[in-house]
Design goal:
By secondary structure, this protein is of the alpha+beta class. It is built from 12 helices and 21 strands. Helix 8 (245-256) packs across helix 11.
Amino acid sequence: MMCAAHAGGRVLLVDHARAPGEKIRISGGGRCNFTNLHCDPRAFLSQNPHFAKSALARYTQWDFIDLVNRSGIAWHEKTLGQLFCDHSAKDIVAMLRRLMQDAGVDLHLQTSVTQFAKLPQGFALTLSRDGKETDVTARNAVLATGGKSIPKMGATGYAYDIAAKFDIPVTDTRPALVPFTFAEGRFAPLAGVAAPARVTANATSFKEALLFTHRGLSGPAVLQASSYWREGQPVTVDLSPDADLFDTLRLRRQQRGRRNLTTELSTLLPARLVEHLATSMDLSGNLGDRSDASLRQLAEALQGWQLHPSGTEGYRTAEVTLGGIDTDALNSATMAVKSVPGLYIIGEAVDVTGWLGGYNFQWAWSSGMAAARALSA
Protein backbone atom coordinates (compact mmCIF):
# COMPACT_ATOMS: atom_id res chain seq x y z
CA MET A 1 0.00 0.00 0.00
CA MET A 2 2.84 2.39 0.86
CA CYS A 3 4.66 1.59 -2.36
CA ALA A 4 1.53 1.69 -4.52
CA ALA A 5 0.54 5.11 -3.18
CA HIS A 6 3.89 6.66 -4.11
CA ALA A 7 4.95 4.72 -7.24
CA GLY A 8 3.39 7.15 -9.71
CA GLY A 9 1.83 6.25 -13.06
CA ARG A 10 -0.89 3.66 -13.44
CA VAL A 11 -0.81 1.21 -10.54
CA LEU A 12 -2.78 -1.99 -9.87
CA LEU A 13 -2.60 -3.42 -6.35
CA VAL A 14 -3.69 -7.06 -6.05
CA ASP A 15 -4.54 -8.52 -2.64
CA HIS A 16 -6.11 -11.90 -1.97
CA ALA A 17 -7.60 -10.71 1.34
CA ARG A 18 -11.08 -9.31 1.88
CA ALA A 19 -9.65 -6.01 3.09
CA PRO A 20 -6.26 -4.36 2.64
CA GLY A 21 -3.79 -4.02 5.48
CA GLU A 22 -5.11 -6.86 7.63
CA LYS A 23 -1.77 -7.39 9.37
CA ILE A 24 -1.72 -3.69 10.20
CA ARG A 25 -5.24 -3.92 11.62
CA ILE A 26 -4.45 -6.71 14.08
CA SER A 27 -1.04 -5.41 15.15
CA GLY A 28 -0.24 -3.89 18.51
CA GLY A 29 -3.40 -5.19 20.11
CA GLY A 30 -5.41 -3.29 17.52
CA ARG A 31 -3.46 -0.04 18.04
CA CYS A 32 -0.63 -0.66 15.52
CA ASN A 33 2.93 -0.14 16.74
CA PHE A 34 3.66 1.70 13.50
CA THR A 35 7.34 2.62 14.06
CA ASN A 36 10.00 3.12 16.70
CA LEU A 37 11.78 6.32 17.71
CA HIS A 38 15.07 4.43 17.96
CA CYS A 39 14.91 2.71 14.58
CA ASP A 40 18.46 1.84 13.57
CA PRO A 41 19.98 -0.74 11.20
CA ARG A 42 21.46 -2.53 14.22
CA ALA A 43 17.94 -3.58 15.20
CA PHE A 44 17.59 -5.72 12.06
CA LEU A 45 18.75 -9.26 11.36
CA SER A 46 19.98 -10.26 7.91
CA GLN A 47 22.78 -12.26 6.35
CA ASN A 48 23.95 -8.85 5.13
CA PRO A 49 23.65 -6.50 8.13
CA HIS A 50 24.39 -3.48 5.92
CA PHE A 51 21.63 -4.06 3.35
CA ALA A 52 18.84 -2.23 5.20
CA LYS A 53 20.89 0.92 5.81
CA SER A 54 20.08 2.63 2.50
CA ALA A 55 16.31 2.30 2.59
CA LEU A 56 16.08 3.09 6.32
CA ALA A 57 18.21 6.24 5.87
CA ARG A 58 16.26 7.52 2.87
CA TYR A 59 12.85 7.10 4.48
CA THR A 60 13.16 7.27 8.26
CA GLN A 61 10.86 6.86 11.23
CA TRP A 62 10.65 10.66 11.35
CA ASP A 63 9.32 10.71 7.78
CA PHE A 64 6.57 8.26 8.66
CA ILE A 65 5.75 10.10 11.89
CA ASP A 66 5.39 13.28 9.82
CA LEU A 67 2.99 11.46 7.50
CA VAL A 68 0.97 10.24 10.47
CA ASN A 69 0.86 13.74 11.94
CA ARG A 70 -0.23 15.30 8.65
CA SER A 71 -3.00 12.72 8.48
CA GLY A 72 -4.30 13.84 11.89
CA ILE A 73 -3.70 10.49 13.59
CA ALA A 74 -3.15 10.81 17.33
CA TRP A 75 -0.40 8.61 18.76
CA HIS A 76 1.58 7.96 21.90
CA GLU A 77 4.89 6.43 22.94
CA LYS A 78 4.86 3.35 25.10
CA THR A 79 8.14 1.80 26.20
CA LEU A 80 11.48 1.72 24.42
CA GLY A 81 10.41 4.19 21.71
CA GLN A 82 7.42 2.17 20.53
CA LEU A 83 4.75 4.38 18.90
CA PHE A 84 1.08 3.36 18.86
CA CYS A 85 -2.12 4.91 17.56
CA ASP A 86 -4.25 6.42 20.32
CA HIS A 87 -7.44 5.18 18.71
CA SER A 88 -7.07 2.27 16.33
CA ALA A 89 -4.75 0.56 13.85
CA LYS A 90 -7.53 1.14 11.34
CA ASP A 91 -6.40 4.78 11.26
CA ILE A 92 -3.13 3.71 9.59
CA VAL A 93 -5.00 1.51 7.11
CA ALA A 94 -7.39 4.37 6.31
CA MET A 95 -4.46 6.74 5.82
CA LEU A 96 -2.80 4.39 3.33
CA ARG A 97 -6.09 3.85 1.51
CA ARG A 98 -6.56 7.61 1.18
CA LEU A 99 -3.05 7.97 -0.20
CA MET A 100 -3.76 5.24 -2.75
CA GLN A 101 -7.08 6.80 -3.69
CA ASP A 102 -5.46 10.20 -4.17
CA ALA A 103 -2.83 8.55 -6.39
CA GLY A 104 -5.48 6.77 -8.46
CA VAL A 105 -4.36 3.26 -7.46
CA ASP A 106 -6.66 0.51 -8.69
CA LEU A 107 -7.19 -1.90 -5.77
CA HIS A 108 -8.35 -5.46 -6.50
CA LEU A 109 -9.29 -7.39 -3.33
CA GLN A 110 -10.04 -11.12 -3.02
CA THR A 111 -7.94 -11.55 -6.14
CA SER A 112 -5.18 -14.11 -6.64
CA VAL A 113 -2.33 -14.21 -9.13
CA THR A 114 -2.45 -17.62 -10.80
CA GLN A 115 0.13 -16.98 -13.52
CA PHE A 116 3.21 -14.76 -13.38
CA ALA A 117 5.48 -14.69 -16.44
CA LYS A 118 8.28 -12.48 -17.73
CA LEU A 119 7.87 -10.72 -21.04
CA PRO A 120 10.63 -9.07 -23.10
CA GLN A 121 9.36 -5.75 -21.74
CA GLY A 122 7.52 -6.33 -18.48
CA PHE A 123 5.32 -9.09 -17.08
CA ALA A 124 2.16 -11.04 -17.92
CA LEU A 125 -0.15 -11.98 -15.06
CA THR A 126 -3.36 -13.93 -14.81
CA LEU A 127 -5.66 -12.74 -12.03
CA SER A 128 -8.43 -14.87 -10.58
CA ARG A 129 -11.48 -13.68 -8.65
CA ASP A 130 -14.76 -15.49 -8.04
CA GLY A 131 -13.77 -18.13 -10.54
CA LYS A 132 -13.15 -15.61 -13.32
CA GLU A 133 -9.72 -15.03 -14.81
CA THR A 134 -8.30 -11.82 -16.25
CA ASP A 135 -5.02 -11.36 -18.11
CA VAL A 136 -3.01 -8.19 -17.47
CA THR A 137 0.42 -6.92 -18.45
CA ALA A 138 2.67 -4.59 -16.47
CA ARG A 139 5.94 -2.83 -17.16
CA ASN A 140 7.04 -3.42 -13.56
CA ALA A 141 5.98 -5.74 -10.73
CA VAL A 142 6.48 -5.39 -6.99
CA LEU A 143 6.25 -8.36 -4.62
CA ALA A 144 5.03 -7.22 -1.20
CA THR A 145 3.54 -10.52 -0.10
CA GLY A 146 5.24 -10.87 3.29
CA GLY A 147 6.43 -14.13 4.81
CA LYS A 148 4.80 -17.23 6.27
CA SER A 149 3.91 -15.78 9.68
CA ILE A 150 0.28 -15.89 10.86
CA PRO A 151 -1.19 -18.10 8.11
CA LYS A 152 -4.71 -17.56 9.46
CA MET A 153 -4.35 -14.01 8.11
CA GLY A 154 -3.65 -15.46 4.68
CA ALA A 155 0.15 -15.48 4.84
CA THR A 156 1.83 -17.83 2.37
CA GLY A 157 5.26 -18.43 0.89
CA TYR A 158 4.18 -16.89 -2.42
CA ALA A 159 7.19 -14.58 -2.67
CA TYR A 160 9.48 -17.58 -2.33
CA ASP A 161 7.55 -19.42 -5.06
CA ILE A 162 8.07 -16.50 -7.45
CA ALA A 163 11.72 -16.34 -6.42
CA ALA A 164 12.15 -20.01 -7.34
CA LYS A 165 10.48 -19.38 -10.69
CA PHE A 166 13.08 -16.73 -11.54
CA ASP A 167 16.05 -18.46 -9.85
CA ILE A 168 16.28 -15.77 -7.17
CA PRO A 169 18.06 -17.17 -4.09
CA VAL A 170 16.18 -17.42 -0.79
CA THR A 171 17.85 -17.80 2.59
CA ASP A 172 16.55 -20.29 5.14
CA THR A 173 13.31 -19.10 6.71
CA ARG A 174 12.00 -19.72 10.22
CA PRO A 175 9.42 -18.25 12.63
CA ALA A 176 10.66 -15.22 14.57
CA LEU A 177 9.29 -13.06 17.37
CA VAL A 178 7.55 -16.21 18.55
CA PRO A 179 6.88 -17.83 21.97
CA PHE A 180 8.94 -20.80 23.19
CA THR A 181 7.33 -24.14 23.94
CA PHE A 182 8.40 -26.69 26.58
CA ALA A 183 7.64 -30.38 26.87
CA GLU A 184 4.95 -31.78 29.15
CA GLY A 185 3.40 -28.41 29.98
CA ARG A 186 6.33 -27.51 32.21
CA PHE A 187 5.09 -24.00 32.95
CA ALA A 188 1.34 -24.62 32.66
CA PRO A 189 0.80 -24.09 36.44
CA LEU A 190 2.35 -20.62 36.03
CA ALA A 191 0.20 -19.57 33.07
CA GLY A 192 -0.54 -15.86 33.29
CA VAL A 193 2.36 -15.01 35.60
CA ALA A 194 4.57 -12.18 34.32
CA ALA A 195 7.87 -10.82 35.58
CA PRO A 196 10.59 -8.44 34.43
CA ALA A 197 13.54 -10.45 33.10
CA ARG A 198 16.62 -10.43 30.93
CA VAL A 199 16.39 -13.26 28.42
CA THR A 200 19.52 -14.31 26.55
CA ALA A 201 19.75 -16.51 23.46
CA ASN A 202 22.88 -17.06 21.41
CA ALA A 203 24.77 -14.33 23.35
CA THR A 204 22.09 -11.69 22.64
CA SER A 205 20.03 -10.33 25.55
CA PHE A 206 16.78 -8.42 25.90
CA LYS A 207 15.42 -6.91 29.11
CA GLU A 208 11.64 -6.69 29.07
CA ALA A 209 8.68 -8.62 30.44
CA LEU A 210 8.56 -12.41 30.50
CA LEU A 211 5.21 -14.21 30.49
CA PHE A 212 4.55 -17.83 31.42
CA THR A 213 1.94 -19.61 29.30
CA HIS A 214 0.26 -23.00 29.19
CA ARG A 215 2.67 -24.01 26.44
CA GLY A 216 5.85 -22.29 27.63
CA LEU A 217 7.29 -18.78 27.65
CA SER A 218 6.19 -15.60 25.93
CA GLY A 219 6.35 -11.86 26.55
CA PRO A 220 8.48 -9.22 24.80
CA ALA A 221 11.84 -10.42 26.13
CA VAL A 222 11.15 -13.97 24.97
CA LEU A 223 9.84 -12.92 21.55
CA GLN A 224 12.95 -10.84 20.99
CA ALA A 225 15.29 -13.64 22.02
CA SER A 226 13.49 -16.14 19.78
CA SER A 227 14.89 -14.45 16.69
CA TYR A 228 18.40 -15.41 17.82
CA TRP A 229 17.67 -18.86 19.28
CA ARG A 230 18.26 -22.10 17.39
CA GLU A 231 17.04 -25.62 18.17
CA GLY A 232 19.04 -27.37 20.85
CA GLN A 233 20.44 -24.17 22.32
CA PRO A 234 19.68 -23.08 25.90
CA VAL A 235 17.96 -19.87 26.89
CA THR A 236 19.19 -18.03 29.98
CA VAL A 237 16.73 -16.08 32.14
CA ASP A 238 17.82 -13.45 34.67
CA LEU A 239 14.91 -12.97 37.08
CA SER A 240 16.52 -9.92 38.70
CA PRO A 241 17.57 -7.83 35.72
CA ASP A 242 17.83 -4.52 37.54
CA ALA A 243 19.73 -5.50 40.69
CA ASP A 244 22.39 -7.89 41.94
CA LEU A 245 20.24 -10.47 43.75
CA PHE A 246 23.06 -11.62 46.02
CA ASP A 247 23.58 -8.09 47.37
CA THR A 248 19.82 -7.68 47.83
CA LEU A 249 19.44 -10.96 49.74
CA ARG A 250 22.50 -10.35 51.92
CA LEU A 251 21.17 -6.91 52.91
CA ARG A 252 17.76 -8.34 53.70
CA ARG A 253 19.36 -11.11 55.77
CA GLN A 254 20.72 -8.38 58.04
CA GLN A 255 17.36 -6.62 58.25
CA ARG A 256 14.89 -9.53 58.20
CA GLY A 257 16.89 -12.66 58.97
CA ARG A 258 14.02 -14.38 60.79
CA ARG A 259 11.75 -14.30 57.76
CA ASN A 260 11.21 -17.41 55.70
CA LEU A 261 13.31 -17.43 52.52
CA THR A 262 10.32 -18.12 50.28
CA THR A 263 8.38 -15.28 51.92
CA GLU A 264 11.21 -12.86 51.29
CA LEU A 265 11.74 -14.04 47.71
CA SER A 266 8.02 -13.49 47.10
CA THR A 267 8.58 -9.77 47.67
CA LEU A 268 11.08 -9.80 44.82
CA LEU A 269 9.45 -12.30 42.44
CA PRO A 270 5.84 -13.38 41.78
CA ALA A 271 4.70 -15.69 44.60
CA ARG A 272 3.50 -18.41 42.21
CA LEU A 273 6.90 -18.40 40.53
CA VAL A 274 8.64 -18.80 43.89
CA GLU A 275 6.37 -21.76 44.68
CA HIS A 276 7.31 -23.31 41.35
CA LEU A 277 11.02 -22.74 41.89
CA ALA A 278 10.79 -24.35 45.33
CA THR A 279 9.97 -27.67 43.65
CA SER A 280 13.42 -27.78 42.04
CA MET A 281 15.55 -25.58 44.34
CA ASP A 282 16.14 -25.72 48.08
CA LEU A 283 14.32 -22.65 49.36
CA SER A 284 13.62 -24.00 52.83
CA GLY A 285 14.39 -22.31 56.13
CA ASN A 286 14.86 -18.72 57.17
CA LEU A 287 16.90 -16.12 55.35
CA GLY A 288 19.16 -15.71 58.39
CA ASP A 289 20.18 -19.36 58.22
CA ARG A 290 21.80 -18.92 54.83
CA SER A 291 25.53 -18.35 54.46
CA ASP A 292 27.03 -15.97 51.92
CA ALA A 293 28.02 -18.95 49.78
CA SER A 294 24.45 -20.31 49.88
CA LEU A 295 22.94 -16.93 48.98
CA ARG A 296 25.43 -16.45 46.16
CA GLN A 297 24.60 -19.88 44.76
CA LEU A 298 20.87 -19.10 44.92
CA ALA A 299 21.34 -15.69 43.31
CA GLU A 300 23.40 -17.17 40.48
CA ALA A 301 20.73 -19.81 39.89
CA LEU A 302 17.97 -17.20 39.68
CA GLN A 303 19.98 -14.76 37.58
CA GLY A 304 21.32 -17.47 35.29
CA TRP A 305 18.33 -19.81 35.03
CA GLN A 306 19.12 -22.07 32.09
CA LEU A 307 16.17 -23.44 30.17
CA HIS A 308 15.99 -25.67 27.10
CA PRO A 309 12.91 -24.97 24.94
CA SER A 310 11.59 -27.92 22.98
CA GLY A 311 10.71 -25.53 20.16
CA THR A 312 8.54 -22.55 19.31
CA GLU A 313 4.88 -22.08 18.49
CA GLY A 314 5.86 -21.76 14.84
CA TYR A 315 4.40 -19.62 12.10
CA ARG A 316 0.94 -19.90 13.68
CA THR A 317 1.77 -17.17 16.19
CA ALA A 318 5.11 -15.81 14.92
CA GLU A 319 4.90 -12.08 14.30
CA VAL A 320 7.43 -12.21 11.45
CA THR A 321 9.44 -14.56 9.27
CA LEU A 322 13.21 -14.62 9.69
CA GLY A 323 15.13 -14.95 6.44
CA GLY A 324 13.68 -14.65 2.93
CA ILE A 325 14.76 -13.28 -0.42
CA ASP A 326 18.55 -13.14 -0.39
CA THR A 327 19.65 -9.50 -0.23
CA ASP A 328 22.56 -10.26 -2.56
CA ALA A 329 19.94 -10.56 -5.31
CA LEU A 330 18.57 -7.06 -4.69
CA ASN A 331 19.69 -3.46 -5.16
CA SER A 332 19.66 -1.97 -1.65
CA ALA A 333 18.76 1.51 -2.92
CA THR A 334 15.79 0.48 -5.09
CA MET A 335 14.84 -3.06 -3.95
CA ALA A 336 15.05 -4.11 -7.60
CA VAL A 337 15.96 -7.71 -8.43
CA LYS A 338 19.32 -7.51 -10.19
CA SER A 339 18.68 -10.47 -12.49
CA VAL A 340 15.06 -9.69 -13.43
CA PRO A 341 14.59 -6.19 -14.87
CA GLY A 342 11.37 -4.55 -13.67
CA LEU A 343 10.86 -6.83 -10.64
CA TYR A 344 11.06 -5.41 -7.10
CA ILE A 345 10.72 -7.20 -3.76
CA ILE A 346 9.98 -5.32 -0.53
CA GLY A 347 9.00 -5.77 3.10
CA GLU A 348 8.96 -8.98 5.11
CA ALA A 349 9.54 -11.15 2.03
CA VAL A 350 13.16 -9.94 2.04
CA ASP A 351 15.85 -11.30 4.37
CA VAL A 352 15.54 -8.29 6.71
CA THR A 353 13.88 -8.90 10.07
CA GLY A 354 13.49 -6.26 12.76
CA TRP A 355 13.19 -6.40 16.51
CA LEU A 356 9.83 -6.28 18.22
CA GLY A 357 8.48 -2.77 18.67
CA GLY A 358 7.62 -1.17 15.33
CA TYR A 359 10.86 -1.97 13.52
CA ASN A 360 9.29 -4.34 10.99
CA PHE A 361 6.62 -1.82 10.04
CA GLN A 362 9.34 0.79 9.52
CA TRP A 363 11.15 -1.64 7.22
CA ALA A 364 7.89 -2.03 5.29
CA TRP A 365 7.49 1.75 4.90
CA SER A 366 11.17 2.31 4.06
CA SER A 367 11.59 -0.54 1.60
CA GLY A 368 8.24 0.31 -0.01
CA MET A 369 9.31 3.91 -0.50
CA ALA A 370 12.68 2.81 -1.93
CA ALA A 371 10.90 0.84 -4.65
CA ALA A 372 8.27 3.55 -5.20
CA ARG A 373 10.87 6.25 -5.76
CA ALA A 374 12.71 4.06 -8.24
CA LEU A 375 9.47 3.40 -10.10
CA SER A 376 8.44 7.05 -10.17
CA ALA A 377 11.85 8.35 -11.26
